[in-house]
Amino acid sequence: MKINKMPLLLLVLLLAGCSSFKRQVELAKQRQIKFKVDMKTPKVPVGTVEAQLDGQFTGLKKVNVNVTYSPVEDALCLEFKRNTVTNYQFFDRPGRTAFLNALEKYTEDFEGKKLVNSKKTKNKYGNTDGYLIWRITRVSESSHDSVEFSFGYLFKEKSPFFTITQGEVVFEDIFATDSSKKYLTNGEFQLFFTRAQSMELAAYFDQQFLRGLTNIKPETRESNIDYEDY
User: Fold this and answer.
1) Domain extent listing, the chain
2) Are β-strands 159-166 and 189-193 bridged in parallel, bridged antiparallel, or unpaired?
3) How far is it, in rounded angstroms, from Cα 225 to Cα 154?
4) pLDDT value for 8
5) Which pTM does this prediction carry?
6) What span, in angstroms and rounded, lies between the C-alpha atoms of 16 and 191?
7) Which DSSP letter does residue 55 get?
8) Cβ of 175: how many Cβ atoms within 10 Å?
C-alpha cells in the first residue's frame, strides 16, 4: 500500500511550529522584569519629536512621538501610534545611557563614511532591556511586558536612518475565549530617525536635563522627511 507522506509532513511542521510558539510563551513567562512603570504615577510632559515608521509597501511614514518622564520610576517614555496600536516604550537610566552611547557611535560612523547598506546593522550598536505598554485605545485594556530595544541603523532611499528596534513580545489576551488564541505576538519593528531627529531626542535622554525638569508643554511641529544623501 502506498502511503501519502505529504499530510504527515504538514502535521509534523504544524506541531513543530506550535512547539516553537509554546517555548516562546514559556520564555516570556520566565523572563524577569528589570523595571516597570505604573501609568497612574505622575508623568511630566517633555516634548514631541518626529520619527518614521516603515509602511512596507508605502515607504516611510512620519509619526509624532510624545515624550514624557516618570520621576517615580525614573523612566522616559516614547509614546506613538503604529497602525491602530498605541505603544509606550519606557527607558530606565541604563537604557537611556545605552541609547546615547549608540547614537554617538552612529554619528562617528556617519561622519567617517563607515555606514554600509545591510539589514544586519539594525542592532549594530547594542541593546538594552526596556518596558513596554501597548493598547488599541486609551480606554481599552492594556498589555505590558519587558522588551528588548536594539540600536543601529538602516538605509531607506539611499539615506541611513538611526533606528530603535522594538523586539518581539508574546502576550496574553485576557479576553480570548479560544485557548489556542490566548497568546498573541507583537512583532518586531523599527522607529527611524534622521540625524536631526535623533539629536533632538538625545536631548531628552540626557539625565541632567531630566533632573531639572519642570512642567514643560510639548510642542508639535510639521515638516517633511529629511532624507540625506550618503
Assistant:
1) 10-211
2) antiparallel
3) 15
4) 56
5) 0.76
6) 32
7) -
8) 9
